[in-house]
Amino acid sequence: MAVAAVEGGHRCPHTTRLQLSACHMTSAHVVLLLQVYSLAEQNRFYKKAAGYCLRAVAKHSPQLAQAVIDSGALDALVTCLEEFDPGVKESASWCLGYMAAHNAELAQQVVEAGGWRTFLQVRITAVSGA
C-alpha cells in the first residue's frame, strides 16, 4: 500500500485539472479512503508516503482538497502532526497547509479539526529546540 501511495503522489503533480476525469476521481477517492482508514495502524514510512499522496491531491483545487477532507483525512493528518518522526510531521503539515490555502471555508475546517493548534505546537517545539 505504501508503494501505491508514493506512486499516486508521483503521478498527481503532473496531472492537469482537465485530465482528472470522473474515472480518475472515483479511483482516487477509493485510494484516499483506503489510505485514510489504514493510516492510524501503519508505520512511519507509510504515514509519510500517504501524507505525500494526500498533499499531491489536495493542492490541485478546492474541490479535490474537499474530497480529501471528506475522506476523513483531517483527523488522521492532525494525529500525524503528533508523531515522533519529523518526516511524518512535515508531510502532514504540508498537506494541511495546501488544503487551508485554497479558501476560507477549507481553512476553517482545518482549524476546527485542531490542525492549527497542533501545527503551532509542533512549530514552537522545533524552533525552541525542545
List the helices and strands and how they pair.
Blueprint: H1 2-11, H2 22-38, H3 44-58, H4 62-70, H5 73-80, H6 86-102, H7 104-112, H8 115-128
Task: Characterize this entry briefly.
With 130 residues, this protein is an all-alpha fold. The protein is built from eight helices and no strands.
Please identify which CATH superfamily we are dealing with. Answer: Leucine-rich Repeat Variant
Describe the global form.
Answer: globular
Helix content: over 70%
- Determine the number of helices (DSSP H or I, runs of at least 4 residues): 8
SS-based class: mainly alpha
Average pLDDT works out at 74
Number of domains: 1
Q: Identify the CATH class.
A: Mainly Alpha
Question: Biggest β-sheet: count, sense, barrel?
Answer: none
CATH architecture: Alpha Horseshoe
Unreliable sequence segments: 1-6, 16-23
CATH fold-level label = Leucine-rich Repeat Variant
Total strands: 0
Order of helices and strands: HHHHHHHH
Cα(first) to Cα(last) distance is 34 Å
User: Measured on Cα atoms, how large is the radius of gyration?
Assistant: 14 Å
Strand content: under 5%
Structure overview:
By secondary structure, the protein is mainly alpha-helical. It has helices spanning 2-11, 22-38, 44-58, 62-70, 73-80, 86-102, 104-112, 115-128. It has a single domain (2-128), classed as Leucine-rich Repeat Variant (Alpha Horseshoe), CATH 1.25.10. It has eight helices and no strands. α1 (2-11) runs parallel beside α3 (44-58). The longest helix has 17 residues, at 22-38. The chain is globular and about 35 Å long.
